[in-house]
Write a structure and sequence with these properties.
Layout (H helix, E strand, L loop, with lengths): L17 H4 L9 E7 L4 E7 L5 E7 L4 E7 L5 E8 L9 E5 L4 E3 L6 E2 L4 E8 L7 E7 L8 E4 L1 E3 L12 E6 L2 E5 L6 E5 L4 E5 L11 E4 L2 E9 L5 E9 L7 E3 L10 E4 L3 E5 L4 E5 L9 E2 L4 E7 L4 E7 L3 E5 L2 E9 L10 E9 L1
Parallel strand pairs: 12-16
Antiparallel strand pairs: 1-25, 2-29, 3-4, 4-5, 5-6, 7-9, 8-9, 9-10, 10-11, 13-14, 14-15, 15-16, 17-18, 18-19, 19-20, 21-22, 22-23, 23-24, 25-26, 27-28, 28-29
Length: 353
Amino acid sequence: MKAIKTLSIFMSVTALLSACNSGGTGSSGTTSSTYSVSSKWSTVGVPISATQSLSGLLYDKSVDEFFMTQSDDSGKVVGICHLPRNASKLQNWNCDIMLPNEYIIYANKSLMGNNSGQLYLYAYKKDTGVGSPTILTYDIKNGNSDWNAQAVTQVNPITPLDHWLFPSSSAYWNGSLIGISSLPNVLDMINLDNGVLEEMSNFYAPIADNRQTIIGDNLYYSNIKYSKAGDAQEYIYTKNLISQESATQVGMQLPEWAINSLSGSSQQVYVCTGGNIYANSLLASTNSQWRVLPPTSQLSVKYSNADSTILDSTGCYVVIEANNTLYALASVYESATSGANSGKTKRLLKLSL
């Protein structure tokens, strides 16, 4: 990816990555490494420390705030933190929404919401275990309110409830939570009024790969195919939730596979990966290429007698469009140490569209 020259954060480290310098590059003399958050992105709230263990990202338009779950050292979800959308870079996340003690939250499932003041979490009772699936609901506008618990029951089950797992990549639609079943061609729909679960077999064709989003009445989801050589190829498909007609492909094959998340707006669908953010029209044809948005941060190295070489760039975990601005939760470089996780911190960033 082409380097972005304007930097808002900059560091030089002499003689860093000397192993690269002696590894056949043909260069000599000193090297320097720089890390940057692109000037196109700006920070919302203070950087998220590792001890906070915040994950996921949800926006609620009715209160104009972002929400994330907070976990303890064991990975157990213990609360919810929130931050105003227009927060300055000095404002802390407020972690004052506590969870009911008698429930255990499914840590690998997302925080969900209806964009009108209600938050949802998948949970089960401590004393009865996974055989007691429950949806917890919190009213944001009624501060310090109790969580409402709704037990999940089934109609014409494909998977018996005692073996059923909460769906992945769930989202709110028309009074229900919709997600991908543990069977990748099955859609799970849970009515929030009565907790009734309906399973729709053969809904995802081609099958879903654990990532989806709902935009209006249309569901967008990812699918991975494998070439004859065994190479993974990822595509995005869309299907209308009302007509339930056959899914259609959106855009060309994605430049990467194993994406982090899908999201969208009234006009665009966005794809998050660890290294890039991609966008395309909601109705993009199969020959429409995915646009690459500016990376959230970069790590590069420069030799004294050569041009800069980008070692790595970062994309996002989740991206959300609100008020003609793109917000990305990303792990960005804040030191000039290379490696999968070293030298990075988690931030909420914004990009004007």
